[in-house]
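S., here's the first fold you wanted:
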Amino acid sequence: MNLDLDAAACAFRDEVRDWLAANVPAGRLPSVDTPQGDAAHRAWERRLADAGLAVVSWPLEYGGRAVPPLHALLFEEEYHAAGAPARIGQNGLFLLAPTLLRHGTPAQRDRILPPMVRADEVWAQAWSEPEAGSDLAAIRSRGRRTDGGWLLSGQKTWSSRAAVADRAFGLFRTDPQASRHRGLTCVMFDLRAPGVTVRPIRQLDGDPGFAEIFLDDVFVPDSDVIGEPGDGWRVAMSTAGHERGQTLRSPGRFLAAAERLVALWRSGDGRDAATRNRVVDAWIGAQAYRMHTFAALDAPAGPFAASATKLFWSELDVALHETALDVLGARAETDAAWTDGYLFALAGPIYAGTNEVHRGIVAERMLGLPREVAR
């Protein structure tokens, strides 16, 4: 693995670093899940898009820069190191868009990607249901065939960004007679369409980061089906791979947090060896994740590697933030940045499939261990 950057990579990194230094807002934007934060973050996304930096890895025709994967990783490192705002469009940019680029039609890409780049349309992820979270194949929401499209009915829950989003994508059972993983269809729908009710869910911090979505015979045209009807499981697994892997949680995020943790330790009064070792372990973990990602550019990992990756980054995130709060001590009560980061990190072992589910995947499908005995 060669870690020396060539001239083109250095020039790109320097361009991104200079632009961010000149444009990143001086203070934190309001929470992305509030009306004020929604407007501020959409404005930030348009600023990125105007600079050609919203989605650097995308094809040129959709607003990207068509840069190689290494450049995209460098962009993420610079973005997080600069303390740039969270991405309100992340569900669309990092989950739906890669799915459309692989499984969508040219017409879908032409229609959906340009407004996504400029945050004119923000997307919610509508996977989970009241009795189908990590067990995604247990969904009960249905799609019923009608002239020119489908009628969607059912309930989605824990839908991220749904309280402020414009549209959503999710799985629906379109053939009730088929087995669990068959007869599913991946569909996009308008959150303001007749028959849709969005009910925000308040988090511990009081913001509606999630919402329930109720659908009552909501019409969607055939043109909003991703892939073939009945082939939704394959499409969804493609999306989940991006959610669990490095697309949504790039190493840059953890590198920046680890560097802030080291700086916090150096600025503090406490000097106990045990906490110092935890700071070191968190920094090493972030560097290890970076090295793993760089290595994967030359030798892509196997089909289930995203599960191992998700286990690593989600547990690293919790450990890193727990260490920061311990270093802060009583000051943690008034440090919103580390406290907010800790609360978000706690969700990591749950979303994108619980870590218990991913340990099962690693055990059975990567290591060939026997299935867990049902008790």
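And the second, which I think is the more interesting of the pair:
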Amino acid sequence: MRRAVRVALIFEREHLVGVSGGKRNGLRQQVVLSGVGGQGILFLSRLLAEAAIACGFPVLTSETHGMAQRGGVVVSHLKVGGFDSPLVRTGRADLLLVLKEENVALHREFLADGGDLIVNAPIRPDAGSGVRVHAVDGDALALSAGVPHAVNLILLGYAFARIGGGEAGGFFCAAGEIRDALSRRHGGSGSRLAASLSALDLGIAHGTW
């Protein structure tokens, strides 16, 4: 029997007292990340949350995952800005990032009209009208680059290249702030950090073609 676990993480607002309020005052952004166990959805969610905190934004996350080690569906909600509830409601997400193409059908409903769908798929899937679809074969890129476990970072880099970030709009932060968050997670140096940054940059490069 499949067992679902939901975890809500509310990063302490005390951590934010005294921070400038963010580089983009009034920013509110809702992101849903979807995949299966082993693809690094939770890692991406926490990486983005850490980047948001570093930027001075309040952030809420909520994770739902079943038997992740057996390839069960994993979905994470990330809300950056002034929100009170961690869950993204249907039709409200600004961005849906999908690491498993089959999950588009499961979680497409979260996207708002005019939202962006970033999907790991060799061919652009039909996601209906009213959303912008950006598809990249992250699995093939990861294999060719020798980083098969970094599809999540390739897709994140691709997303940054497609929709932008930071002061220019798009993502709440810039790709450079994700690099900083990765550096903090990996202690500032080492082969794991190098591989992670390489995967992120690979996605950015393919997104700018």
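Why I say that: The CA atoms of residues 125 and 160 lie 20 Å apart. The radius of gyration is 16 Å.

Talk tomorrow,
H.
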